[in-house]
Amino acid sequence: MTTVATPPTPVGVSPAAARRARVAGLVQRQGALVILVMLSLIATVAFDSFGTPGNLRSIALQGSFLAVIALGMTFVILTGGIDLSVGSVFALGGVLAAWGSQYNALVAIALPLAVGSLIGLVQGIIIAKGGLPPFIVTLAGLLLARGLLLALTDEGSTTYKVPAGSAFRDVAQGRLLGVAFPVWFVVVLFLVGGLILRRTSFGASVLAIGGQEDAAALMGLRVARTKIVTYVASGFLAALSGVLIASYTSSGVTILGVGTELEAISAVVLGGTLLTGGAGTVLGTLVGVLLLQVIKNVINQIGSLDSDWQAVVSGTILLVVVTVQQYLSRVERR
Q1: Which end of the chain is more exposed for a tag (fewer CB within 10 A), N or C?
Q2: Which range is most confident: 77-86, 208-217, 253-262?
Q3: pLDDT of residue 5
Q4: Residue 179 belongs to what H/E stretch?
Q5: How far is CA 204 from the centre of its chain?
């Protein structure tokens, strides 16, 4: 009979303490998934329409735009950084895509992606090479992107529409096996993101930098380059989400993106990624996005609650999760 060996207990640590650390680590990583499953089961029983294929497809589609942004945010936070500019880059990308669609689909896609990547590159260089705090730099990026958006739309008075019959509409309005294209984009992007984080030297560098940047530098890791790449990726993905929303709605909506950066951060943290960096997963972020969308959907199902309660409930859950994460992190390190 084959037996499974139990991992040895570290020297100086009691078996009980080791068990507590393992349980704390498991809850920190999988807690959001447990809450998502429980909430979904309760909602399915309580509301007839919640578990229908149409509603589940709606949840997936509505969450797909946030998920693309949150994927980039995951890598940034894993390095110990933050990117407050993604909401404005998302909105700017949508407007640029709608404007570019007047020429052709290639311009509609390439222009916002290039601008989003450039904003991420500038921010990354200033943070990694200049040593400025990510909060301040990306806050300036938020104002810059929002300012460009307002300049392009005459303070929001001009709305760019995607021409009827444009091939650009097919980017997000099509379906495969009954599922909208943006959802398939998320599936592919998260698969690639997960492989990069767990199977490449770049992913190992991201985790090492977030865990202890000075130690990562002493190990010979290219800290500055890794940080710059994560901010470029964040800007690129935020703009890509803007491209998808512009294609799906056939317009560039100037009021989009307000507070989206906070939703993305919430999804990442809910998914088990530490705000201090160094620990987290791509799959956890996807779970965090779905949890936020399910909460919104349940509140809509209730009907009697004002939509503002979505922010109240989400904010309360986030506060609890961050507090619990900090506690569990201390338990795991003991």
Answers
A1: N
A2: 77-86
A3: 46
A4: strand 179-180
A5: 19
